[in-house]
Amino acid sequence: MTSWAQFTRPRTALIYVGASLAVAACAGGITHGGYVGNAYQEYECPTPIGKIVREDCSRLALQYDGASFQGSVGVSGVGASASYKEHAVREADSLVAMLKEQRVSLCNNFNTCKMTIPEYRDDQKSLDDSFVALLTLKDKMAQLDAEGAAKLLAEIRKVREGVGRRASATPVLPIPDSPRSAARAYYDAFISGETDFVYNNSSASFRTTVWKTRDELRSWRDRIVDGFGPEKASVLEEYTVAEGRGYFRHLGEYAKGRWEHTIYVDDVTRQITGWMSVAAAPAGRPHFEDALSAGRAYYMGFLSRDCSLVFEASSPEMQRATWHTIGNLVAFRDGVVGADGPEKALVSEEVTTDAGWDRYQRIARYEKRKTRYRIWLDHGSHLVSGWRVEVLDN
User: Fold this and answer.
1) Which of 194, 257, 306, 367 has a Cα at 20 to 30 A from 215?
2) Closest by alpha carbon to 290, among 376, 381, 361?
3) Cα-trace Rg, the chain
4) Judging by beta carbons within 10 Å of its beta carbon (0-12, 13-18, 19+), is residue 4 exposed, middle or buried?
5) Is 338 or 89 the better-scoring residue by pLDDT?
6) Does 295 have pLDDT greater than 90?
7) Which residues of 181-219 are buried (b: 16+ CB within 10 A; e: fewer)?
8) How far, in Å, are 131, 168, 339, 375 from residue 72 at the CA level?
9) Is pLDDT above 60 for 32?
10) Residue 44 confidence (pLDDT) above 70
């Protein structure tokens, strides 16, 4: 079997986010009244703060760079012990990243006269104490059995929850024990504007690659919520687990239309690993009752060169990272259809469930060869999240 071309659904979560914002580093961010070469001198802040001695924020960040649990502890073996250790290492490294971010942010706030010296010293001590407490757990990890690793994971979470509470001036909600209730709490917090809770409970890789900063998450949330208005009625809410990740879906009727939110949650750590909020029936796309009729319509639209239907029905991630433009989609279509020729006979057509997505598959004999189409659809909204075309042996 040879592959003609493929645009395969990402194994990571499908995300809809705004433009990325760069985070300015502390050192070099201020060019007046304090820095002389590498020396950090006194600086006069407005009252009531007064005189301070600015700190080298980039140097403070370095102490966290060598604290990786994955690099120093590692995970080996199989079974419950290795599984708990893997999650403990993952969550510990996530916490290291969170502590680093907060420490640098704290330093930046202090250097720019946003807090008093006593406030800074108190928060600094609190963060440093959490970092020391986390590092003491590293030495315990190597020889633990399953029960010990589970207890260690619980200790790491206690440190993390304490750090999370300091990350926001608003109260941080407790993390529910159930992954489903955790996902629901994240949705409620997002809708109500508690974006710090959402940010603090996102995985380190997700924060780094998607949210970027708390302000960017807050800005994206405001645009999304303003776009659909208050919720009038809940249409559907479900939680499923596949490949170690939970998929929470909430479909609601809002003041400005029907929207669907999908939150991807690690089934053990309960951290957010993905988020998608989309209009359930975007303009230019008809409503389909099931995945079979949706997949068939997208396939027929593709063959007939109605690529606007396919593009408008694709998820934001699919549009941005795969199709890029309708023109690219049309060029891809022309290459495939030109090599196949007209369809002569349908061999098989089916819909299956694949890791939280519905997969429409169609195998047919064309004028020049036998080809298989696979179209991955989001379960519920029927948005296209992946597209693959393969040439089969005759």
Assistant:
1) 257
2) 381
3) 25
4) middle
5) 338
6) yes
7) ebbbbbbebbbeebbbbbbbbbbbebbeebbbbbebbbb
8) 16, 31, 52, 42
9) no
10) yes
Q: What number of helices (H) and strands (E) belong to the chain?
A: 13, 13
- From the CB of residue 245, how many other CB atoms can be counted at a distance below 10 Å? 20
How many whole angstroms separate alpha carbon 264 and alpha carbon 64?
28
pLDDT tens, position by position, 216-258: 888 888 888 887 888 888 877 888 876 667 788 888 888 877 7
Please enumerate in sequence order all residues whose Cβ is within 8 A of that of 65, keeping only pairs 6 or more positions apart, or say none. 100
Asked if 372 and 389 touch (Cβ cutoff 8 Å), the reply is yes
List residues bridging with 40 in a β-sheet: 35
Q: What is the DSSP string of 245-274?
A: EEEEEEEEEETTEEEEEEEEEETTT--EEE
Of 379, 371, 370, the closest CA to residue 292 belongs to 379
Report yes or no: 146 and 81 within 8 Å, Cβ to Cβ: yes
d(CA 135, CA 167): 20
89: alpha, beta or left, given left = phi > 0 and alpha = psi -120 to 50?
Answer: alpha
Whether 54 and 108 have beta carbons less than 8 Å apart is answered as no
Q: What are the tens digits of pLDDT across the range 47-106? A: 778 888 888 888 888 877 766 666 554 444 434 445 556 766 777 777 788 788 888 888
Burial class from Cβ neighbours inside 10 Å (0-12, 13-18, 19+) for residue 247 reads buried
Inter-CA distances, 148 with 48, 82, 94, 270, Å = 49, 11, 20, 20
Which element (helix H / strand E) includes 85? helix 80-111
The top-scoring range by mean pLDDT among 63-67, 133-137, 377-381 is: 377-381
